[in-house]
Amino acid sequence: MLDMMFSISAVLAGISMLSLALAAPTNPITTTTLEKRGTFSCASPVSGLSASDCNHMSTIKMAGMGTNAKAANEGIWIGSQGPNIFAFTNKAAVPITLIIWTQVTGDYQSSFMVARTPAVSYSLSAGQTVTISMANGISGGWSALYNGQTTLTQYGQINNTWGEFTTGGYATVDISSEINMSGNAMSITVGSNGCVANMSKCVFQCKPGQGNTCGASGTYNLNGCAVGSQPGATYGMKAGNPTGGCQGFSNGGHVTVNFS
Predict the structure, then answer these.
(1) Based on the structure, what is the number of domains in the chain?
(2) What is the pLDDT of residues 219-233, one digit of tens each?
(3) Residue 9 gets which letter from DSSP?
């Protein structure tokens, strides 16, 4: 589990070109690649995605809409039939677009929405909830576009707070502010034990002096997640970097996520 969470936080969430070099991507993203990305058509948005949210995604040069699958599969789909049930609620005063992606083994561009399409892109008005199922044995992350204003970073990742997950035997969730230390607030709660990840608990944050973004080895901490600090909290070290998060839903369970 700790190795898996390290791969998410240190590689998936790495936003600098240095972190990309450390990850040794097979197809590294370059400025030229980003310049070639254009807008996509929103003539027929997928179910659950509004036309205005689709247009914003296209305008900020995301690669495309989410699949928004409704039938059970080996990844992510909209519904409550899966072993892992995630309920995402918009508690902000403005509409948001939920974006969920999966980390494909060996693909270090999985979180770069300028290069990869997400699994889910779903519009949530204030107070609205959507239930998402996840199969076991997958990893990935999510973030939100707020009120048609959130953009991508210069490298093509969502420039906001992220949630990160691994399902299966070592199921874990955490929050990462590595992309944007000034991002919107989020909280995650594991249903079985009440373990909470928020902006002060089980959250990856840049070390003092690292600025508003980080991701390279040695530039971030996992704060508020010491073992014993709350049920389900885990913490470890891998190659000099922290790993961990909230556990308590091995091979299935319920997780709630609130955006504020």
Answers:
(1) 1
(2) 999 999 999 999 999
(3) I
